Amino acid sequence: MSQESFDILVIGAGPAGSAAACWAAKQGVRVALIDKAAFPRNKLCGGLFTGRSRAYYQEVFGQEFDPSHAVTKTDIEFWAKGRRLARLTDIPPVNLTMRIDLDATLLAHALTAGAVDYTGHPIATLDDDGVTLRDSTRLTAPILIGADGVNSITARHLFGAPFDKGTIGFGLEIEARPEEQSPADHPLRIDFAAATWGYGWSFPKQGSTTVGVGGLHAPNPDMKAHFSAYLQSLGLDGAPKRFKGHYLPFGDFRKAPGRGHILLAGDAAGLVDPITGEGIALAMKSGQLAADAAVTSLKEGQPRSAYGHYRRALREMHQSLRIARMLRPIIFSPRWQGAFTRTFERSGTVRMQYMRLLAGEVEYPELARAVLRRLPRYLLNRIKRSRGSI
Ligand SMILES: Cc1cc2nc3c(=O)[nH]c(=O)nc-3n(C[C@H](O)[C@H](O)[C@H](O)COP(=O)(O)OP(=O)(O)OC[C@H]3O[C@@H](n4cnc5c(N)ncnc54)[C@H](O)[C@@H]3O)c2cc1C
Q1: Is the CB of 200 under 6 A from ligand 1?
Q2: Is the CB of 279 under 6 A from ligand 1?
Q3: Residue 212: CB within 6 Å of ligand 1?
Q4: Minimum mean pLDDT among 128-132, 192-196, 358-362: which range?
Q5: Which of 4, 210, 239, 374 yields a CA-CA distance of 20 to 30 A from 353?
Q6: How far is the CA of 248 from the centre of ligand 1 (A)?
Q7: What are the sequence ranges of the domains in the chain?
Q8: Looking at ligand 1, which residue's alpha carbon is closest to its atom 16?
Q9: Above 80 in pLDDT, residue 44?
Q10: SS3 labels along the chain
Q11: Ligand 1 centroid to 327 CA: how many Å?
């Protein structure tokens, strides 16, 4: 059995893991980047890469995002229950990526920065000191970063389960072929109410369109039925056989994403926006913060203080996600959704705020202030309407 020791083991080479490995390697520590998959590999995802993602990408990987493999869009349609609510033609630009390309690029950046490549190496066992690969190689380090996605074995090791079934989200997708839906002729499209506490999307890419439905898992025991209905509404009736599904931690972030010298980042830490479902940006940012905390604790000679540093660094992100969860019922709760979609249809301000949110141009504390400023008038209108109907 061969054995290698490092300063940090990063488990998982998605956006969170590649960001963590790249950021740590740039600071001169020895990092192993381990993934069970050989790259390039796919990952079920809408691939929407927002302004927020582009900003974090530049910060972590030290270069501008290259959109040559992506489609850039500045127009979008919003629908609800088969009715078009709005078409916006001048939105902040968003990129639509294929994760097979995006993640291979992020991994390449991490390896160029000096991370040692252990992708394509399934893990047989994980313990507090490191991992044993299936080929019996033993890798150890004083710090482990679990960036191994929603089904994280690192989170399972720490807490017994990777996520809570009662609060997790779930998404289904297909790649529609150009002959089924031409990506060039269709705008970006979001369908509120395509699932309960969730939504549908149609994202045109290079050579295909990613069509999906996602939302909270518990109130959607039959997400497939929602997806079939959604595909039918788009004229994609022939596609259901090609469904693929994946959990996503739709805003159920872990209050304690680690312990001592073991840190969780990205989906493993539950860091997905509970309104938009965006996870790539927060994965990269949390990977960077985890790497920073790890390097600081190594410099102090106190690897077990890494989690304390990390938890403090995550405060702002956690606060933002808390506010998003507070706002979420306004958009998704079946009780309020009719009022929301009507307001969305009528109010240019609400549409623009939602769009800025989707594009990663506004953060939740700012949005909450704007919503709260409008709320009294909104409540007043509701009261007036309910009095009128008596
Ligand atoms: C249907 C759907 C649509 C989505 N759409 C969007 C979108 O449009 N935009 C957006 O920003 N976000 C979207 N998300 C969320 C986004 O995909 C995730 O938040 C993001 O991928 C998280 O990155 P990560 O690095 O934490 O995890 P992942 O990208 O899941 O990467 C984890 C890595 O860990 C590896 N791994 C797992 N287990 C092990 C193991 N035992 N041993 C070794 N390696 C392991 C995996 O092979 C993988 O490479 C969507 C999610 C879903 C499910």
Answers
A1: no
A2: yes
A3: yes
A4: 358-362
A5: 210
A6: 8
A7: 3-47+98-164+251-313, 169-248, 327-388
A8: 279
A9: yes
A10: CCEEECCEEEECCCHHHHHHHHHHHHCCCCEEEEECCCCCCCCCCCCEECHHHHHHHHHHHCCCCCHHHCEEECCEEEEECCEEEEEECCCCCEEECCHHHHHHHHHHHHHHHCCEEEECCCEEEEECCEEEECCCCEEECCEEEECCCCCCHHHHHHHCCCCCCCCCEEEEEEEECCCCCCHHHCCEEEEECCCCCEEEEEEECCCCEEEEEEEECCCCCCHHHHHHHHHHHCCCCCCHHHCEEEEECCCCCCCCCEECCEEECHHHHCCCCCCCCCCHHHHHHHHHHHHHHHHHHHHCCCHHHHHHHHHHHCHHHHHHHHHHHHHHHHHHCHHHHHHHHHHHHHCHHHHHHHHHHHCCCCCHHHHHHHHHHHHHHHHHHHHHHHHHCC
A11: 25
pLDDT score recorded for residue 382: 58
* Residue 383 pLDDT grade (very low, low, confident, very high; cuts 50, 70, 90): very low
Ligand 1, atom 38, lies closest to the CA of: 148
Q: Which atom of ligand 1 is nearest to the CA of 15?
A: 25
Q: What is the pLDDT of residues 347-371, one digit of tens each?
A: 888 888 888 888 778 888 887 777 6
Kindly report whether the global pTM for this prediction surpasses the value 0.85.
Answer: yes
Q: Considering only the top CATH level, what class is 3-47+98-164+251-313?
A: alpha beta
Which ligand 1 atom minimizes the distance to the CA of 282?
A: 19
How many residues are given for the chain? 390
- Residue nearest atom 33 in ligand 1 by C-alpha distance: 12
Between 388 and 185, the higher pLDDT residue: 185
| 291-to-60, 131, 255 alpha-carbon distances in Å | 11, 18, 19
> How far, in Å, from the CA of 102 to the mean position of ligand 1?
12
Out of 280, 282, 314, 317, mutate this one to test ligand 1's pocket (max ligand atoms within 8 Å of CB): namely 280
**Ligand 1 atom having least distance to the Cα of 267:** 26
When pLDDT is cut at 50, 70 and 90, the band that residue 386 belongs to is very low
